[in-house]
Write a structure and sequence with these properties.
Structural class: alpha+beta
Number of strands: 9
Radius of gyration: 17 Å
Strand content: 25-35%
Shape: globular
Strand order of the largest sheet: 8-7-4-5-6-9
Oligomer: single chain
Order of helices and strands: EEEEEEHEEEHH
Length: 165
C-alpha cells in the first residue's frame, strides 16, 4: 500500500508500506488533513501528459533513481519529452479529457511483459507545465519552437478576445 497526501507536491510525504505490520497505528498528518491510501504498483515507466482545449499539449517520461514518489515533476527525477502512441492518445483524448481539465499521470505496470497495462492516476487540475529547457529532447519530440507555456498564454488571450474582455 501507499499513503499519499493530497497536497504537498513533487511526491512529498508519500510512504510505502509493504505489509500490514509496517502500517502505523496513526497515519502521518498532512497539511490539509486529506490523504489517499492506494495499492502500490511498481512503475515500469511514469509519464505526465498535459492538455489544453481537449487536446494533448505535450508529454514527458520521468527517469529517476529508485524514487518512491510517483510524481513526474519530482525534484529527484529527470524529464524527457515523450511522443505518445495513438492508443494512449485515444484513451486520454477520447475517454479521459471530457472528464478533466488539466493534467493526468499514468504508469505502466513493471510486472507486465508488455506496456499494454496502464494505470491512470493523479489528476492534476492545476499542474505546473514543464519548462522546455528542463526537458531533454523537447525540440526533437515537440518541435523546435514549441513551448507549452506560450500555448497556454495564447489560449488565454484567445479566450479573452472571444469573450470581449
Amino acid at each position: 500500500s501507499r499513503f499519499k497526501p493530497n497536497a504537498g507536491g513533487f511526491g512529498n510525504g508519500i510512504v510505502r508500506y509493504n505489509n500490514k505490520e509496517e502500517f502505523p497505528k496513526e497515519l502521518p498528518t498532512t497539511n490539509d488533513q486529506m490523504a489517499v491510501l492506494q495499492s502500490y504498483v511498481a512503475p515500469k515507466q511514469l509519464y505526465r501528459v498535459w492538455f489544453l482545449r481537449g487536446k494533448i499539449q505535450c508529454a514527458v517520461v520521468r527517469h529517476s533513481e529508485g524514487a518512491l514518489a510517483a510524481c513526474a515533476a519530482s525534484a529527484t527525477s529527470s524529464l524527457q519529452a515523450h511522443q505518445l502512441s495513438s492508443v494512449v492518445k485515444e484513451e486520454i483524448e477520447g475517454k479521459l479529457l471530457p472528464l478533466i481539465p488539466d493534467a493526468i499521470e499514468y504508469l505502466t505496470d513493471h510486472s507486465q511483459q508488455k506496456d499494454d497495462v496502464r494505470y491512470y492516476f493523479d489528476v492534476n487540475l492545476l499542474s505546473t507545465l514543464p519548462l522546455v529547457e528542463t526537458v531533454s529532447n523537447a525540440a526533437q519530440v515537440w518541435g523546435p519552437n514549441y513551448d507549452p507555456w506560450m500555448e497556454l498564454a495564447n489560449a488565454i488571450l484567445d479566450f479573452a478576445e472571444k469573450e470581449g474582455t
